[in-house]
Design a protein that fits this description.
By secondary structure, this protein is an alpha+beta fold. Helices cover 39% and strands 16% of the residues.
Length: 269
């Protein structure tokens, strides 16, 4: 059977971006076994022919009602699927789902009946929030960046904006490419409603949220931009840890240097 991506270049491009990012996550060691998840709102790329496709799965409950997602379509990584496999075969290790009229359930429409990640309710809750606030963001990425997670094991970095200011100060590009910084969510059970609610609360002020002792969750206009924000933050963590391993506390950019850069690049203060 032909893939849903055939003769649909815009949709194929979005899925190809997911596959590329999945490869990066695996190569960096941020996606052990089936670790991490990616969900992308692809509704804008859905044509009438796709809308007419029948379900290839039973109806699955989301577990909550998400009114802003009525009739939306998402590409999702499959449950228990590995990022390294998603990178090579995205439509065998992920699926496209349709949110039904009740806004509380979904069906899989392509290409294989691979049930989405168990963290789908959390991801969809975030997308419901993004649509509700009129955000242009379409992609959510959850992954396990080693150095950022290591920092989350220290209570001092879990205080509001302590990690943000430290990471911004390590290299100018970090604030330029992650201008809203890093939000912090104290430990919650993975996949829980409590974790989703706490993440959504942080997304009012941040695009990237650290889950204590677990990983990070990022949102942006597409999956590549969400990945980039995580990448620059973890690069700063690497620089900080490298300096500490050399036996000294890095100075970091001064407050004056940070203000100068913020003004030069028109960044938030």
């Amino acid at each position: 059977m032909a893939s849903i991506l055939e003769n649909r270049p815009a949709l194929a491009t979005e899925v190809e971006k997911v596959a590329e990012v999945a490869g990066y996550l695996w190569q960096k060691g941020w996606a052990e076994r089936n670790g991490g998840n990616i969900t992308v709102n692809i509704t804008e790329h859905i044509d009438e022919e796709i809308k007419a496709l029948p379900a290839i799965s039973p109806i699955y409950p989301i577990g909550t009602v998400l009114p802003n997602l009525k009739g939306c379509y998402f590409y999702c990584k499959g449950t228990n699927m590995r990022m390294r496999d998603l990178a090579r075969r995205p439509m065998e290790n992920g699926s496209i789902i349709r949110i039904l009229e009740d806004c509380a359930s979904y069906v899989i429409i392509a290409d294989n009946a691979v049930k989405p990640t168990s963290e789908l309710p959390s991801h969809l809750s975030v997308h419901n929030y993004l649509i509700g606030k009129g955000s242009p963001y379409k992609a959510s990425v959850h992954t396990h960046p080693i150095e950022l997670i290591a920092m989350s094991h220290s209570p001092k970095y879990l205080e509001k904006d302590v990690a943000t200011k430290l990471l911004w100060s390590m290299i100018p590009e970090t604030k330029a490419f992650c201008p809203r910084g890093l939000g912090i969510v104290p430990y919650r059970l993975a996949g829980s409603v409590e974790l989703a609610d706490a993440t959504i609360a942080e997304l009012d002020d941040y695009d990237v949220v650290m889950w204590e002792k677990h990983g990070v969750f990022a949102v942006d206009c597409d999956v590549m931009q969400a990945f980039d924000q995580i990448d620059v933050l973890n690069k700063s963590a690497l620089i900080y840890i490298a300096a500490k391993s050399m036996g000294f506390e890095p100075d970091g950019m001064s407050e004056e240097q940070m203000r100068e850069m913020s003004m030069a690049f028109n960044l938030p203060k």
